């Protein structure tokens, strides 16, 4: 079964400093039909105006992955990390027993564009930890590249959960197919471009939950980029 999540049907917060689209219930957006997918609880697409962002706030017992798609994000946290993430950088925080952090757009003139994903951990109360890695545009070109996994294999970020994240960048006209485990669930999020997913057109911002499927077939109608999340 494939359940599509239209980009225009997502929850939306339009503020003075941040425009955010929520694939699942988050903050003031509540929809009992969209509370998450398996261990995936949050998938937010944020655009942050120059000089603004998210002031210091706290998290516990959550695996938080941030993909910077455009611009930059200045990150500061209670673990002592003070870094600037640029387009192509991926960050993972295991909030565990508790962290505090802030995220700001340091640019004077360019909006920051990012995806933030929250996944429930396999076990609560772990010691908080932090990782980041840059995945260059040429990585994942017409092939899946692993960016997060339980064991950190192939240079991926390490998740405290039986979940994997992969990026794919397809050239226009290219197609790719991969086998799926029908016992697992998969979420596809289109980051850019237009693709066909098992014959159905999807565009930037669209998502899809795949359950009980054995094959994923993707065809790029334009140059396209997407995120695949594999969940137990």
TrEMBL record:
Protein family according to the UniProt entry: Belongs to the pirin family.
PANTHER family assigned: QUERCETIN 2,3-DIOXYGENASE
Name used for this protein in its record: Pirin family protein
Record CDD domains: cupin_Yhhw_N (cd02910)
Organism: Sphingomonas rustica
Organismal lineage: Bacteria, Pseudomonadati, Pseudomonadota, Alphaproteobacteria, Sphingomonadales
Domain Pirin N-terminal: 15-119
Domain (Quercetin 2,3-dioxygenase C-terminal cupin) ranges: 146-231
């Amino acid at each position: 079964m494939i359940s599509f999540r239209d980009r225009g049907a997502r929850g939306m917060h339009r503020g003075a400093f941040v425009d955010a689209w929520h694939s699942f219930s988050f903050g003031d957006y509540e929809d009992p039909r969209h509370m998450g997918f398996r261990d995936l609880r949050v998938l937010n697409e944020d655009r942050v105006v120059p000089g603004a962002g998210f002031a210091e706030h706290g998290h516990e017992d959550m695996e938080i992955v941030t993909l910077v798609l455009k611009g930059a994000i200045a990150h500061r946290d209670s673990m002592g990390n003070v870094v600037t993430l640029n387009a192509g950088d991926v960050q993972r925080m295991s909030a565990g027993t508790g962290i505090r952090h802030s995220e700001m757009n340091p640019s004077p003139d360019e909006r920051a564009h990012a995806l933030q994903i929250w996944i429930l951990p396999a076990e609560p109360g772990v010691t908080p930890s932090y990782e980041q890695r840059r995945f260059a545009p040429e990585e994942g070109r017409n092939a899946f590249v692993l960016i997060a996994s339980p064991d950190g294999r192939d240079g991926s970020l390490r998740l405290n959960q039986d979940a994997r994240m992969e990026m794919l960048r397809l050239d226009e006209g290219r197609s790719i197919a991969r086998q799926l485990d029908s016992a697992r669930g998969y979420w596809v999020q289109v980051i850019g471009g237009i693709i066909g997913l098992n014959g159905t057109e999807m565009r930037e911002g669209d998502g899809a939950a795949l359950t009980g499927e054995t094959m994923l077939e993707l065809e790029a109608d334009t140059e396209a980029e997407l995120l695949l999340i594999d969940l137990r």
